[in-house]
């Protein structure tokens, strides 16, 4: 069994949410960790766990970030971490996989399904074995108790319910 840990310097965890239903606001978490255990070359037996420090959320706007940390959204005082634990990592074809697991956010755990593209494995200049993955998916923020809503004068939503997830993960094989 090989264990891999995420390289936070060469990885990113981002999300996108519609604002006024016409543009996306992008946010990311700057503090996170992930572990993958696998004994197969194609990772089909991989067990993956991920967590992020929700207080590290940033959209590059201090006022908005402050609002995201309140009870309207992440409620970081009550729920300082979000987590994911895989239940299946299934090869679809070529380098395409489906990752299924349980996402816990704001104390609510729901099953999610994510699309994964395996970008290959190589050795870096320091002799470390690294594998790259691009992960995409969608969740409904209301499923996790993020029900904050506001309407424009015309009746449109200020914040969309669908949250697009995008993760670039560079995993380092542990010695």
Commentary on this structure:
The protein has one helix at residues 62-68; strands spanning 2-6, 12-19, 23-29, 32-38, 47-53, 57-58, 81-93, 96-105, 108-123, 129-140, 159-173. The chain is mainly beta. The protein has an eight-stranded antiparallel barrel with strand order 1-4-5-7-8-9-10-11. The N and C termini lie close together (11 Å).
Run of helices and strands? EEEEEEHEEEEE
User: What is the overall pLDDT average?
Assistant: 92
Taking pLDDT < 50 over at least 5 consecutive residues as the criterion, the unreliable ranges are none
* Cα-atom radius of gyration: 17 Å
Distance between the termini: 11 Å
Total beta strands = 11
The 3D shape can be described as globular
What is the CATH class? Mainly Beta
Order the strands across the largest sheet as they lie in space. Answer: 1-4-5-7-8-9-10-11
Content-based structural category:
mainly beta
Strand portion = over 45%
- Which CATH-level-2 architecture? Beta Barrel
